[in-house]
Design brief:
By secondary structure, this protein is an alpha/beta fold. It folds into two domains: 172 residues, Alpha-Beta Complex (Aspartate Aminotransferase, domain 1), CATH 3.90.1150.10; 261 residues, Aspartate Aminotransferase, domain 2 (3-Layer(aba) Sandwich). Helices cover 38% and strands 15% of the residues. It has a seven-stranded mixed beta sheet with strand order 4-10-9-8-7-5-6, with helices on both faces. The protein has a four-stranded mixed beta sheet with strand order 1-2-3-13. The longest helix is centred in the last third of the chain and has 26 residues. The structure holds pyridoxal-5'-phosphate (PLP). The site of pyridoxal-5'-phosphate has 16 residues, from helix 6.
Length: 452
């Protein structure tokens, strides 16, 4: 029965206001291409590639076959302490080849984006400890950042409320903020805090879950220069931007900046199974290729380099190459940018932001973004995501057709106009009540600002 009604009384869903979610959760039972299907037979266009990961679309037989083949042969074996399997060899070779965001890199695997953060942030600290620079322990992130919700990620979260929710300041104390856009202010922060206290700066090339903020011109290059000047490691979090979302394999390539560590997850397996990891530059990995016991990085998760996940990743990379999806993202970006321009002309739209195949449409405060998202889902058949500054975020799959993208953009404009009309009707007392229940629990299904 629960399955039909969409009730899950035994489930505690992540970052979800459970009290108001009951009875409002959407039951998704099937996916095919850019569409998802609900238990009651509705078709929804996946305007956000789910949580920024369904880049090659849902329900693909080629990926399912790759996973099944691998599971029959060897579901996985550990790669801890001297074991290997063929898929992890193939994947690490492929990733560190021409597509790599860092030349001559090594790659370490985890199970998802938050794991990637743990790998990168600890390694940055260890790097300086082993060089005798013991005071270099702080990791700085940008306002509006999202780096997952493990202890480090929570402590680097772009919202102070999330960062400090657990008492006694951030869970990892040696963390702090830099300005999101102004590189001169970043320099001021580094000097104020003391370069000798800072191990690393972490940045998403384009901020994703925090609201889609492309970098201001020169910002990422400026970070690279400051990190070089002050002996600070530069970590790019490419959990969203990696594997094609900017039209290049990695966002860093689009902006022509080489970091010291690159975090990835999501798009490497496009949601078919969990996998994440970190590219590490030679300057960081080289000392660890030693027999000195001091140079042992004691970190890892059971499923690091999981064979089925690696097989899926290889199959996903094949799809991206075979179907020319990096080029397709560039085409879609141009089309989306034209559509965003049209939306920007609406009186209900305050601002549009975006680069690559990710964008935010900020709505006038009279129009609630969670309300627009609800309208789009319930009557427009589109899934989009409202975020904290009253914006609608979209990041469709790379396999989206021109028509699907045009429909998505038109539907957003339409829903914003309708929500505005409903708001005005209420304001002048034409209709005493409108349904706003989703807006009221916008922090879970329709509004998880700065999460995921
Ligand atoms: C930029 C970024 N980093 C890290 C993460 C965390 O990834 P995961 O949820 O797989 O742990 C996310 C998730 O949305 C993300 O967007």
């Amino acid at each position: 029965m629960s399955q039909l009604t969409g009730l899950a009384p035994a489930l505690w869903a992540p970052s979800t206001q459970m009290g108001s979610a009951q009875g409002h959760q959407e039951l998704i039972v099937r996916g095919e291409g850019a569409y998802l299907y609900t238990a009651d037979g509705r078709r929804l266009f996946d305007g956000t590639a789910t949580l920024w990961f369904a880049n090659i679309g849902h329900g693909r037989a080629d990926i399912a076959d790759a996973a099944a083949r691998q599971m029959r042969e060897l579901e996985t074996f550990q790669i801890w302490g001297g074991y290997l399997h063929p898929r992890v060899i193939e994947l690490s070779e492929r990733l560190t080849g021409p597509m790599a965001p860092i030349p001559d890199a090594k790659v370490m695997f985890g199970s998802g984006g938050s794991d990637s953060g743990e790998i990168a942030f600890r390694l940055a600290r260890l790097h300086w400890q082993l060089r005798g620079r013991e005071s270099k322990v702080r990791i700085l992130s940008r306002h509006n950042a999202y780096h997952g919700l493990h202890a480090f990620g929570t402590s680097l979260h772009g919202s102070r409320a999330v960062r400090e929710a657990y008492g006694g300041g951030p869970l990892v104390p040696d963390t702090g903020y830099i300005d999101r856009d102004d590189i001169d202010l970043v320099r001021v922060t580094i000097l104020d805090e003391g370069p000798d206290t800072i191990a690393a700066i972490v940045a998403e090339p384009i901020i994703g879950s925090g609201g889609v903020y492309p970098p201001t011109p020169g910002y990422l290059r400026g970070l690279r220069e400051l990190c070089d000047e002050f002996d600070i490691l530069l970590i790019f979090d490419e959990v969203i931007t990696g594997f094609g979302r900017t039209g290049e394999w990695f966002g860093s390539q689009r902006y022509g900046v080489v970091p010291d560590l690159t975090m990835f997850a999501k798009g490497i397996t496009c949601g078919y199974v969990p996998l994440g990891g970190v590219f590490v530059a030679r300057s960081v990995w080289e000392p660890f290729w030693s027999e000195d016991p001091a140079y042992l990085y004691t970190f890892g998760v059971t499923y690091a380099g999981h064979a089925t996940a690696c097989a899926v990743a290889l199959a996903v990379l094949d799809v991206i190459e075979r179907e020319g999806l990096l080029g397709r993202v560039k085409e879609l970006e141009a089309r989306m940018s034209a559509g965003l321009g049209r939306l920007a002309a609406l009186s209900q739209v305050v601002e549009v932001r975006g680069e690559g195949l990710m964008a935010a449409v900020r709505l006038d405060e009279a129009v609630s973004a969670p309300d627009v998202a609800r309208r789009l889902r319930e009557s427009g058949g589109m899934l989009v995501r409202p975020v904290a500054d009253n914006s609608i975020v979209l990041s469709p799959p790379f396999i989206t057709t021109d028509d699907q993208l045009d429909d998505l953009l038109a539907a957003i404009g339409d829903a914003a106009m309708r929500a505005d009309a409903a708001h005005n009707a209420v304001r002048v007392g034409i209709r005493p009540a409108v349904r706003r229940e989703v807006a009221s629990h916008g922090g879970d299904r329709d509004g998880a600002a700065g999460s995921g």
